[in-house]
Fold each of these.
Amino acid sequence: MLAVTIDSFSYSEKQVLKKVSFQLNKGEHLSVLGESGCGKSTLLHLIYGTLQLTEGTISWDKKPLLGPSHNLIPGESFIKLVAQEYELMPFTTLAENIAENLSRQNSKKDADRVSELLNVVALSDFKNTKVKFLSGGQKQRVALAKALAKAPELLLLDEPFSSIDTFQKNHLQRTLFLYLKKNNIACITATHDSEEALSFSDKLILLKDGEIDACGTPEEIYKDLSTVYRAGFFGEVNVLPKTAFFSESSSEELILLPHQLTVSDTETKLQVTVKKSYFKGYYYLIQAEWKNKDLFFLHSEIIPEGNKPYLILNK
Ligand SMILES: Nc1ncnc2c1ncn2[C@@H]1O[C@H](COP(=O)(O)OP(=O)(O)OP(=O)(O)O)[C@@H](O)[C@H]1O
């Protein structure tokens, strides 16, 4: 089990992380979601052991991970970090890149393992292609396969799918996260992608200004989008007074995502003026104005600009 207790971490004067504590069991998948610059990559590098933690402790199976001041070669051997820049050898083939991280004692076994890993990242057809001929997204996938070759117990992924198109991404996420579960490899993913975090993780941490803003299962987090910051990861955020829906007097505000508002067939207290409809495939995201502020809701059809529909809370 990984146990992380970070009291504080700073780059020179600037404090980046404070009071970040969590535990992760073997085989579990944690996603760390947070806006740019909130400290996600820093957290991964502290766990991996390329940054030195002075205020706090990080341990694996109760054994403290001491960091680069105590290790000749920074980075723990049973942990692999796949970062935004990849350590690949451009002039050798994909197979050779991956094999570099294998035992090289049994060539048949190594060849089978290379094939298995290329299959996980859907690059079997490129086995004998030199890395320099690959696209950015393909290189990202080779880096993943190379990290898995060393059979890590803990895999740290920093924006692992940032250069991969939606079609490839969905397939890769399913095969990769299934592979990790089957092999009992724990994983921490730093991401901006809330859909990925909801679908694939066992636990989710929302980081805000270097602190844990929320922590729980994806379902728990999604049920408690009680601040604009939290809700903002999952779509456009509407902040509306409770009195826009209910007659009782209240100063309470409701934080609502677009799917929580819908057009009413009958008159309601919330009449808006449509500004624009954005086509999203099987629905439209409608931008409308109410009391000089924009709000967003979903609708099955386009609504012409200037129309004045009534809205209600979606059940
Ligand atoms: N080597 C460094 N020296 C000084 N400051 C740094 C260093 N690396 C990162 N920072 C700062 O620390 C903060 C956190 O950076 P970090 O890369 O951990 O954020 P992040 O959440 O991963 O961001 P992103 O999502 O954009 O990758 C940022 O304000 C960044 O400018």
Amino acid sequence: MEHASNRLPPLIIHRCWPLQFPTPRQSSTHSEIFLSPPLVFRLPSLQPSLLDRGERNLRWGVYRHLRHSSQLRTQRTALEFQLFENMAALLPKFVDRQVLLLHDSDFLLQYLFLHTDCRILDLDMSRKAAYGYDYDDLYDDYEDYEDYECYDDGYGENGEAAAVNEEITKVKPGLWRCSICTYDNDDSMSYCDICGVLRYPPSNTGKNMEQKTVGGVCKDSGVSRLAKSLFASPPRRTPNIAVVPLPQSFTDDIGGGNNFLDSASRSRCCTSIAPFKFDIPSPDDVISNRLHSTKITPRGRLYDCAPPGFAEKNAATTTQPSARQTNNSVAFKGKTISLEENNNSSGERQKYFNDTSTVLRNNEAVAGTSSSRRTHSTPTRNQKSKHDDVGESSSLANGAKSESLSSSLDSMSLNSKSGASKPIAPKKTLAQYKPEKWMLPDKEGNVMAQLNLAIVGHVDSGKSTLSGRLLHLLGQISQKQMHKYEKESKQQGKGSFAYAWALDESAEERERGITMTVAVAYFDTKKYHVVVLDSPGHKDFVPNMISGATQADAAILVIDASVGAYETGMDVTGGQSREHAQLIRSFGVDQIIVAINKMDAVGYSKERFELIKRQVGSFLRQCGFKESFISWVPLSAMENQNLVTAASDDRLKL
Ligand SMILES: Nc1nc2c(ncn2[C@@H]2O[C@H](COP(=O)(O)OP(=O)(O)OP(=O)(O)O)[C@@H](O)[C@H]2O)c(=O)[nH]1
């Protein structure tokens, strides 16, 4: 066995809560690295092109292939790649031993302890007892970590971990385990019966996704920037860090070497945000049956990452799996893109979409009918609203109309001096859309990769409202259900939260008017099963937010443009806009849409938008986001500006 110590200096591994990463130290005698064990470990060398330090180099596809491999995540530090290189040599042995079946990083730590000269500083006392690790009192200041008991992965003081984990990870024949909520589904299910997450790997691989084309997406339609961002793939990335290639045995082990890696990377890792797929509108009852919102439950993987007590704490306010049958709401975290973006041929946005046009060009998307357990029906066409939604739905259904909608407001401009926008009452009816061709599901293919999309941002920035509104516009929330939310929220004197109620399901969340747990919803695009992770914005629930963020492939950062609220969110001493952006990036998310919400509250001021864009952009670049991976969208979730369709208010046209 080749010991990593042959190639690397002794390594001290610190385990710590992700928010407490200190600066690693390196001396001539040893190196240090800080690991956040419950989070995602970026396996090295799985695909060289993904090994840019700033990139997310491993996605869930790989995890799933490795049968729910260890969850371990390293902070990006100068030393990270030392561990990566080390792991490149170690991983084949891991796979051989099937230790990747285990759920936590302890096996890695144990392995390194046993087979290398690494000095392992494990901050979990019980494990220290079990493994006999040395403990250095110098690091007592990490005692906070011990508060997070939910990080316990089953390793008891009696060293029964392996047996426990083996039992946990064992899936009975005829079942498959959801990677998100860990529910054991019947083999016939393509989606998790509890949380709706796409089965991966699929039971029926179907046609090669590469054979699908998505040409012409959004070209002519009135689709907004938000929708387009969801369709778009980011620019191709160029690796800038040399990588030690994996031994052949490892690539063989994980499923066919390059073929697998290519496949995994295509579907999961690197390049594309899925083509956006709108479910075909359907009658209320069908919608009710099709859609559901669920919180990630204590049994779910997300809670594995939360501090101890959170699972229990949130159990009371968490929608249990059964709630799926009674609640039609679906959490959607969306990106907003303006129609204008569609027609804009200049500037960054155009560049972005030029860069990201691969998917768009190829997409003839198709939406929403991929779920085998869903019932599809012909869209109803008799429920058109007289409200704005109708116009938007019309423009969504027929791209040509979007221009006329826009041109009808040509006299307006994005200027604060033009005054506050005319208040528009929340829409009361469900728009029924006639889906465009690109919205329709890919009937030819039956396999979709999964894209996890997190919605993050400061408390009260409008994340849930934006999500609920989008779901409504997309026909994912029925008219009947929306009326119910409106009625109930008004009865509680919280009428403005009607859309948020689609996501904030628990009594406590509704009472307090804040999201407390991550809401999960989904929708399908032609090639992707998009899982929406609606994160709480209150700082008290950062661990919950993290639990969602660690799953994310892409994110929408919602910024409240209101005077005072924006500044608070960006405050260095607790602004959650800042913290969420940092966290999202540190968890490997590099594609982000900044949704500058509540533009109505600042009179759709272009100056305000530009100010926020400049300041937040600067901060995001500091966080490590690349300019080309950031998309900016001014919008008003409440007034339905720049969501699914282009803004009807010219002041929002950039
Ligand atoms: N004026 C205006 N108010 C909005 C807009 N979007 C949301 N709001 C209001 O902002 C308040 C908070 O909205 P939420 O959707 O609950 O915000 P959130 O970010 O989900 O809140 P947390 O999940 O608790 O962080 C509600 O009263 C909404 O009505 C908008 O576009 N314009």
